Amino acid sequence: MPAGDPPPSPAVPVPRRPLTGTGTADPATAARNLVAELTRQPDGQVSASPYETARLVSLAPWLTGHAERVRYLVDSQRADGGWGTGDRYALVPSLSATEALLAVARTGSAAGVDGVARAAGRGLRALPRWLGATRLPDTPAIDLIVPALVAAVNGHLADPAGHPGGSPAVAGPSRLDLPPAMTPARFAAVRDRVRAGAPLHPKLHHALEVVGPLARHARGVVPAATGAVGASPAATAAWLGGADRPAAHPTAAAYLAAAVRPLGGLAPCTTPITVFERAWVLSTLTRAGIRVAVPPDLVDSLTAGLGEDGTATSPGLPADADTTAVTLYALMRLGVPVTPHCLWRYETDTGFCTWPAEDGRSVTTNAHVLDAFGRHLATLGPHPAATGASAARYRAATHRLETFLLDQQHADGGWRDRWHASPYYATLCCALALSGYGETSGVPPALVRAARWVVDTQRPDGSWGRWGGTVEETAYAVHLLAVVGPQPGTAAAIDRARPHLVRPDAHRVTPPLWHDKDLYRPTAIVGAAVLAARHLTEATVDAVPAASAPALDSSGGP
């Protein structure tokens, strides 16, 4: 490992053309505004979740905004009868919305909203398409959510009240079947554990709503100080249960009210996301070399939750290697004296797991651990500790991580991951870690293959995207091309992409692509990605940090 960080990757030179009429501030000014938002909105900025919103319709019709949530489900139904973004990703939000609307149709709890039964019927008729798929998205708790909601929908269909007044508007299949590759075994086991009063792994608290009425005051499940269960509005509503929920548990009820307030009554998938949002934003800005002032309390918020197991995305969730690695990396970039020793808890024979006993493996988690270990070794420099046994262990781990990431590269040059729907995110994460801290001769050709894949998959309008061009995926693609450096077609590709990166507030409306129970958009994190890409491809970026606050490290190195 070199004594210091590798030199900054040169921005790829592209022809400069004026971009008028955008109304967009330069990246440094926009970055200062973005960091200020982190303080003004400490819970984080997350898009509305169709899945989570529909669960509140079923579980908490007493919560303020019920009619707005029902109206949202009716109005946001897709032309094909489903909900959500993407192809097979429609299954979970569509099951949730259909079940919720069937419940509303039965109870009449939103009498002022038109089209409830009609939307429920269209959802019922659309669901077999996604339930019949042989391959499902790798989203959290899908093997619990789908059996739970299929059973709930079938319960509505088995009850004559499930078809209010025999209305043909909700005509559809008389029963839903599970996907071919899915069994209800794990769902049944979790339900049985809750019924028996046995403890659940903390990560299951995030999806506690799957056990239905059994979730109410489930033994061993205690809300966090925020009032949240598993950082999830749906899980919290399920835990509250019953008619006495607000009065008996005011903190949990207050959490639900606060969770839906910023979105006009709709629910995010997870809140708060304070540590996750701040770690990703600051690590992205620092890596790109954008200099802004960082308030000390913001830095303190990243160190406050660090323990022997690392840190968690939110109170009520277990610590995980991904959030921990990015938090440590961001702190090291800020000059905070931390060491990544807590990440050893997540070491496995092949790499690093996101949490112990994880099903599957995440390439982006391993890329982020490589970032943290590589940055730690770089900060040691010529210090005597750099030659000790501890440093040797970190070096050995970085070599294993490098090998793991290289082995996971697809034949087309990209990477795919379980925490994001877009291959452009995974490819950028892996390319950044390898370009910064990879050492073997296999790294340069891997980066060239990644850049070639990015150039080859650019859309005719200059954007990139899995299903359609998005500013988020375009930012990842441009960032990667800038890091890899000049390659055939790179300069022209970046020039075609630049207009997409300067559209005002495009990062606030880009489709949700991040994995939770359904897809979501962490808006500030996406905004930081866009600013990083702009900074790496624009000529003038400069900001002088305030003397009273620590400045982001802007060395430009990884």
Structure description:
- The longest helix has 20 residues.
- The chain is globular.
- By secondary structure, the protein is mainly α.
Task: Write a compact overview of the structure shown.
This protein is mostly helical and 558 residues long. It has 20 helices and 2 strands. A two-stranded antiparallel ribbon has the order 1-2.
Give a topology summary:
Elements: H1 27-40, H2 50-59, H3 66-75, H4 91-107, H5 116-131, H6 142-158, H7 185-195, H8 233-240, H9 245-248, H10 250-260, H11 274-288, H12 296-304, H13 321-333, H14 363-380, H15 389-408, H16 423-437, H17 443-456, H18 471-484, H19 490-501, E1 514-515, E2 519-520, H20 523-537
Antiparallel strand pairs: 1-2
Keywords:
20 helices, about 0% strand, globular, mainly alpha, disordered C terminus, about 550 residues, single chain, about 45% helix
Shape field: globular
Poorly predicted runs are: 1-23, 539-557
| Number of strand segments | 2
Helix segment count?
20
> Can you list the strand order of the major beta sheet?
1-2
* SSE-based structural type: mainly alpha
The gyration radius over C-alpha positions equals 24 Å
Mean pLDDT: 88
Helix content: 40-55%
Question: What is the string of helix and strand elements?
Answer: HHHHHHHHHHHHHHHHHHHEEH
